[in-house]
Input
Amino acid sequence: MLAKRIIPCLDIRDGKTVKGINFIDIREVGDPVELGAKYAAEGADELVFLDITATHEGRKTFVELVKRIARHLNIPFTVGGGISEPADADKLLSAGADKISINSSAVRNPQLINDLAKSFGSQFVVVAIDARGDDRDHWIVTVNGGRIPTDKELFSWAKEAEERGAGEILFTSMNHDGTKNGFANEQLAWLSHTLKIPVIASGGAGTKEHFVDVFNKGKADAALAASIFHYNEIPIPELKAYLQEKGIVVRSF
Output
């Protein structure tokens, strides 16, 4: 059985790590270089660094910041935000990123997934999906950091992304984001059932039990969280020890 991955997420705005609730009420929580090094030392399996306003503001992710963060890491590192062509991805991978994450640009130009997979390999391509569910359990994909709804639906879009060459799907439930009430396990389980590639769960982590649920009920391959790590509410070594006690296979720390 493959080990389940614990992935701290660093949402970056203006060079600082920030966190919000339901994609709003954003506030600063620390320096991304220091936080990245801290999480690597504590036993995080990977890191995700997302420039959350790059697409909305029409600019590219800060390559120099990626270089600074990468110099302090010995674990895989995914970078996203403002990637609209293979040349953007090439710069980030050359700066030290191990994988790149695309979201809004993939929705607007699905061929980008094919192009990136062909240029760099599917294992380097993470397609992130921010979706919001309504009262009828219909999940609408959004772009520009959740600001703009689209005509795409979560499950069909995830399947298309896989078929186009995505190596992983990072699904963030906007309904759960920042609430600390648990992950969208029903939707995650369906994604895991229908896709052959790994699914990363995001949005809703609040307790150690939520991670047990997302791996057992949600069938996720990895779980991403931010605020519980940023505010040291659940230290990574403590979380991994708890998961091992509950029979969840995780990498040693």
